[in-house]
Amino acid sequence: MVNFLVTATMLFIAINLFYFFTTRTYRKSYFNTALFLKLFSVLTVILIGFWLLYYLLSLKGVILVDSLSDPQPIEPTFLDVLYFSVVTLLSVGYGDMVPVGSARFFALLQSAICILLPTAYFMRALDSSEKSQ
């Protein structure tokens, strides 16, 4: 039963995303598939690059702790570092992993890049929309 509900929910999300990207009910709406795929691929490469960077930094010492008040090092497995990189890319973090040392700078850099890139995408899409009218 749970598997059915998970599948139904994923299908519901997929249908809504398809509807969002294909329906132009608003006269000025604009979606550029090539620009979206470019943004997605650039963000994916940035994710992989920072994932590798964090992993390489972890070989030199501790880069992730579970809190600043009582810092317990987190074992930097590939999956933990990937999780940290994804959470940093998509948000400002959950707080379950806190970067320390040089990883703090790179986490700030990754966050800034991943906030500015989608903003630039939307500005570009808006500009393309205005030029096409």
- Quantity of strands, as a count: 2
Oligomeric grouping of the chains: single chain
* Main sheet characteristics: 2 strands, antiparallel
Give the integer mean of the pLDDT values. Answer: 82
- What is the domain total for the residues? 1
Q: Strand order of the main beta sheet, please?
A: 1-2
Extract low-pLDDT stretches.
none
Overall body shape: globular
The assigned structural class equals mainly alpha
Describe this structure in words.
- This protein has one domain (32-131): Orthogonal Bundle (Helix Hairpins).
- The protein has a two-stranded antiparallel ribbon.
- Helix 2 packs across helix 3, helix 2 (33-60) packs antiparallel against helix 4 (102-131) and helix 3 packs across helix 4.
- The protein is globular.
- The N and C termini lie far apart (49 Å).
- 69% of the residues lie in helices and 3% in strands.
- The protein is mainly alpha-helical and 133 residues long.
Would you kindly provide a brief summary of this structure?
The protein is mostly helical. The chain is built from four helices and two strands.
